[in-house]
Each structure stands twice: as structure tokens, then as C-alpha cells.
């Protein structure tokens, strides 16, 4: 029953699977994002309060969600790598980091551009924005730490530990709008009960969320291949795999 | 919505369109960067195999 | 002769304090840094006490943060360089106990020293005496939390070239919530509001960090020493 799990620890298997998944993930991501953008930008009705500016949500919310999802992926796979000493888990963790950091930057900048017309300011030191900024710093810390070690295995383990220590920030970001008086609006989709958004606006948003997730999976697979190669350069299976 | 209205975004164009543009840039950057990373790793692996081959001979 | 964990901790604690006091210049450097950094703000921004008072909690905390980070690098480095750290790890004693003892010793000579010096700095920044108890309490809790966070960072970066910069890069984001609540507590005390909520939160942060950080710091050391 656990064979699939053991196979995931095998570098050649991971390399092959990542290579096979990538085109499909990219294709489905492209379709979802194309639909989400077109429907969301052109056909969804303007918001009662925010007018057409609310359309920024179609890139801002998926980016923010992905920044958290990528960090959690990085932390969990790092933990798996530390606990069970699986090199492929560390490879996944390393692959997720730069992707997550780029989405964090996207979330921060789109949020800033949205804040200017809505709140009158490009930035506010409110709990959610501040903790998202801290998340970006944590990403940079993890990436720098991994790169600072000459022994890559040791670097992987140190980075994994730091990622785990920093994961406490993720629930803080998510619940910050509940726990504190925040300028940022509360949860619209990621909460229990009916989503607080009309269907015509919600569908493109869900499509964008799905599209970004699939895209994350695709780029993760692409980076993962590079990470696997870097860690397994000396292995014999690499010879065959490269020729393909 | 009219074509003009689409681009104007109800007056918020200068906020909405840079966001969309940045999102596209970030998506493309991710693809490009991952591609490049894989290519560099392939190159290093090939070199390692060559060196191992020449050492064995 | 075999030694229990608590005995080992007290031995390490005494050793650390003994070593620290043998180099008084290294003890004083972070304190002087603390004084100098706090002086920079009135010089750079405004010498008016009424204005300084508004920024004082933040200035105090940022300066304490930076001064603590300065000395954090040395937590494991000295022992790592001469091989003592490996001996300690191999000694059969609980590495966690040793890490705890080292961190507490470090807090004594840096964080506690900062707290003792803080009234002096507070007067220079225009903080009223009525706010002192809150300030002292929040700084004590805060510097202890900081020592724990620094221990994690030090454990991860010991032996790295230019590890001290990376140490700061790692510890500062983790310390930001601490900074926010610590400065907030003193702020409220200055304004005359009750700082209870913020102080309780700081205490909670301190307890949380004190219970989990030793595990993380020990794990970090094991990774680096392997």
C-alpha cells in the first residue's frame, strides 16, 4: 500500500513523473487562467462599492493564497526530509521556495496597487500586510541559508529547519484579519459557510485560484527536475535520463 | 461592457492593468527561471558524466 | 563521574559566565552599541523630547534588537572554533540542556545588561518614569525571547562564512512580531493606557518561544555538527 510513497523517494521516478506531469499541468493551468482572466476582467459585473478596481482580486487573491500554499509546501516537505531523511523531499522544498517568493511579491505589489484607490494609501502597517511582508523575508532567509552551505545536504537540512520555524507565520497571516482590527478585508472564500461573493464574480476567481495552483504544480515539477539533477549528478540513472 | 470601458476599467485603469501585467510577468518569469534552472542542471550533469568517463579511462 | 542534566546545565552556565567576564571588552561592546544607536535617532530626527517620546519605545526596541544580534553570533562560534562544541555534543549530556544553559548565560550578559541600562537611555529619549516598570518588564521578556530566537539562528549559521549577516537576516523577520508588541506595550504605558494586554501577549510569546526554541536550536546544532 505504501509503494507509491517509497517510489516518491526514488530520484529517477520523481524525475520521470515530474517530466510527464509538466505539460498537462501547464495546459490545464493555461485554460483555467485564460477563462478566469477573460471572464473576470470583461464579463463579471463591477462591484457595488469598488467599481472595476475590484478586478484586481483576480490576480491578488490567487497570488496571496499561493504564497501561503507554497510556503506550507516548502515547510512540510522540509519536515518530511528532516524526519525521514528523504532527499527528494528536500528537492521539493528547494524547488518551492523561489516560486513562493515570486508570488509573495506579486501579492504585495498588487495589494499595494489595490490599496491606493481603496484605502488611499499604497501601504499600511496593518497585521496582514506586515505578516505577508515578513513571509517574504522568511523566503529570502530560507533561500539564503540553503545557498550558504558548501555541503548541499547540510544546507537542505538547515533550510528545512528554518522553514519549519517560520511556518508559524502562515496561520498568523490567515487569521490576522479575524484576530486584529485590520484594514484588510476579511475572508471571502476561505471560510466556513457561504462565500461572501456573488456567483458571477466567484467563478472566475475560483478558476484563477485553480489555474494558479495548477501553474504552481507545473513550475514546481520543472524546478524539481533541476533540483533532482543537481543532487543526483553522480548517479547512474542520470546518464540514461539525460539522453532522453 | 464596451471595448473602451474595458480598457478604462471605470477610471481605475492605472491600478488594474499594471496588476494584470505584473501577474503575467511573474508567471512568465517562473516559467523562464525554471527552464533555465533545469538547463543549467542538465549541463552540469553532462559535464560530471564526461569527467567521470574520462577519469575511468 | 557521571553528571545529571541539571548539574551539567549549571556547570555550563558557570563556565559561560566565567568566560564572558574574562573578556569585559566583549561584554561592554553591545552595551556601548546600544547607547550609540539610541543616540543616533535624536541626532538624525529631532532633539525635541516631546517628539522623541513618541518614537521612544520603537527606538529603544530597535536598538535593543540590533545590540542583541551583535553578540548573538558568538553564542556557539567560540566553542565551535576550538572544538569544544563537538566535545559537548559527544559528551553524552543532553545537548538541549547545554543549549539552554548557554542561551540563558548569554541573556544574562547581554539582554539583562540591556534591561539594566534601559532607564538611562529612556531618560535620554524622554520616556516618563511612570512608564519604566512596563518598559523594564517588556524589555526583559523581549530580550529573553530574542536570545532564544538568536540561539536558533546561531545554531543554523555557526561555522558559515559571513554567518553573522545571515544570522541577522534569519532572526530579524522572526523577531518582528516581538518588536511590534514590545514597542506597543511601552507606548501604551507612556500614553497612560493600561499595557496589560500587550504585556500578557509578550509573556505568551516568551513562553511559547522558550518552550520550542531550545528544541529548534538543538536540532540546528545537530545539523551543523553532523
Structure description:
The complex is a heterotrimer of chains A (244), B (57) and C (226). Chain A is mainly α and 244 residues long. Chain A has a single domain, classed as Four Helix Bundle (Hemerythrin (Met), subunit A) (Up-down Bundle). In chain A, 77% of the residues lie in helices and 0% in strands. In chain A, helix 4 packs antiparallel against helix 8 (199-231). The mean pLDDT of chain A is 90. Chain B has helices at 3-8, 13-56. Chain B has a domain at 18-56. Chain B is mainly alpha-helical. By secondary structure, chain C is mainly alpha-helical. Chain C has one domain (5-225). Chain C contains ten helices and no strands. The longest helix of chain C is centred in the C-terminal third of the chain and has 30 residues, at 196-225. Chain C is elongated, with a radius of gyration of 18 Å. The two termini of chain C are 27 Å apart. The mean pLDDT of chain C is 89. Classes of the chains: A mainly alpha (244), B mainly alpha (57), C mainly alpha (226). At the A-B interface, helix 2, helix 3, helix 4, helix 8 and helix 9 of A face helix 2 of B.
CATH A-level architecture of chain A: Up-down Bundle
* Most extensive chain-chain interface: A-B, 40 and 33 residues
Uncertain parts of chain B: none
Number of strands of chain B: 0
Which regions of chain A are unreliable across 5 or more consecutive residues at pLDDT < 50?
none
Domains of chain A, number:
1
Would you tell me the overall average pLDDT of chain B? 87
**Backbone CA Rg of chain B:** 23 Å
Overall spatial form of chain A: globular
> Which structural class do the helices and strands of chain B define?
mainly alpha
Described by strand count, sense and barrel closure, the largest sheet of chain A is:
none
Judging from the principal axes of the Cα atoms, what is the shape of chain B? rod-shaped
Estimated share of beta-strand residues of chain A: under 5%
Strand content of chain B: under 5%
Number of separate helices of chain B: 2
Characterize this entry briefly.
Chain A is built from 9 helices and no strands. Chain A has a single domain (14-243), classed as Four Helix Bundle (Hemerythrin (Met), subunit A).
Amino acid at each position: 500500500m505504501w509503494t507509491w510513497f517509497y517510489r516518491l523517494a526514488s530520484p529517477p521516478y520523481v524525475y520521470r513523473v515530474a517530466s510527464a506531469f509538466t505539460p498537462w499541468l501547464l495546459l490545464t493551468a493555461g485554460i483555467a487562467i485564460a477563462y478566469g482572466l477573460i471572464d473576470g476582467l470583461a464579463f463579471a459585473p463591477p462591484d457595488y462599492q469598488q467599481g472595476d478596481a475590484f478586478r484586481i482580486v483576480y490576480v491578488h487573491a490567487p497570488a496571496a493564497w499561493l504564497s501561503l500554499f507554497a510556503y506550507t509546501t516548502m515547510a512540510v516537505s522540509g519536515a518530511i526530509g528532516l524526519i525521514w531523511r528523504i532527499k527528494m523531499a528536500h528537492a521539493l522544498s528547494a524547488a518551492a521556495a523561489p516560486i513562493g517568493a515570486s508570488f509573495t511579491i506579486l501579492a504585495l505589489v498588487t495589494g499595494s496597487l489595490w490599496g491606493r484607490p481603496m484605502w488611499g494609501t499604497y501601504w499600511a502597517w496593518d497585521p496582514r500586510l506586515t505578516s505577508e511582508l515578513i513571509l517574504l523575508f522568511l523566503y529570502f532567509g530560507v533561500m539564503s541559508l540553503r545557498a550558504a552551505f558548501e555541503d548541499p545536504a547540510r544546507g537542505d537540512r538547515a533550510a528545512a529547519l528554518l522553514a519549519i520555524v517560520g511556518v508559524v507565520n502562515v496561520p498568523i497571516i490567515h487569521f490576522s484579519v479575524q484576530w486584529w482590527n485590520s484594514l484588510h478585508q476579511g475572508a471571502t472564500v476561505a471560510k466556513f459557510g457561504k462565500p461572501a461573493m456573488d456567483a458571477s464574480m466567484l467563478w472566475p476567481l475560483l478558476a484563477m485560484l485553480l489555474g494558479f495552483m495548477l501553474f504552481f504544480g507545473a513550475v514546481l515539477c520543472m524546478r524539481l527536475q533541476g533540483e533532482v539533477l543537481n543532487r543526483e549528478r553522480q548517479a547512474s540513472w542520470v546518464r540514461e535520463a539525460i539522453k532522453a | 461592457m464596451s471595448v473602451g470601458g474595458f480598457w478604462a476599467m471605470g477610471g481605475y485603469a492605472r491600478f488594474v492593468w499594471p496588476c494584470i501585467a505584473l501577474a503575467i510577468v511573474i508567471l512568465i518569469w517562473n516559467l523562464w527561471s525554471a527552464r533555465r534552472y533545469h538547463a543549467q542542471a542538465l549541463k552540469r550533469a553532462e559535464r560530471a558524466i564526461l569527467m567521470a568517463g574520462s577519469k575511468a579511462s | 563521574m557521571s553528571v545529571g542534566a541539571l548539574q551539567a546545565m549549571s556547570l555550563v552556565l558557570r563556565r559561560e559566565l566565567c568566560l564572558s567576564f574574562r573578556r569585559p571588552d566583549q561584554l561592554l561592546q553591545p552595551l556601548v552599541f546600544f547607547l550609540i544607536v539610541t543616540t543616533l535617532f535624536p541626532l538624525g530626527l529631532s532633539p525635541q523630547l516631546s517628539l522623541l517620546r513618541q518614537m521612544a519605545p520603537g527606538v529603544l526596541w530597535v536598538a535593543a534588537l540590533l545590540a542583541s544580534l551583535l553578540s548573538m553570533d558568538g553564542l556557539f562560534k567560540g566553542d565551535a572554533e576550538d572544538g569544544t562544541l563537538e566535545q559537548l555534543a559527544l559528551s553524552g549530556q543532553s545537548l538541549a540542556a547545554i543549549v539552554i544553559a548557554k542561551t540563558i548565560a548569554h541573556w544574562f550578559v547581554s539582554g539583562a545588561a540591556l534591561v539594566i541600562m534601559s532607564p538611562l537611555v529612556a531618560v535620554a529619549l524622554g520616556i516618563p518614569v511612570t512608564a519604566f516598570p512596563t518598559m523594564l518588564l517588556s524589555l526583559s521578556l523581549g530580550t529573553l525571547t530574542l536570545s532564544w530566537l538568536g540561539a536558533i539562528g546561531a545554531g543554523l549559521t555557526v561555522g558559515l562564512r559571513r554567518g553573522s549577516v545571515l544570522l541577522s537576516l534569519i532572526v530579524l523577520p522572526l523577531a518582528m512580531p516581538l518588536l511590534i508588541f514590545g514597542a506597543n506595550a511601552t507606548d501604551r504605558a507612556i500614553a497612560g493606557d493600561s499595557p496589560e494586554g500587550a504585556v500578557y501577549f509578550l509573556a505568551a510569546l516568551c513562553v511559547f518561544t522558550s518552550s520550542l526554541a531550545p528544541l529548534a536550536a538543538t536540532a540546528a546544532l545537530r545539523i551543523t555538527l553532523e
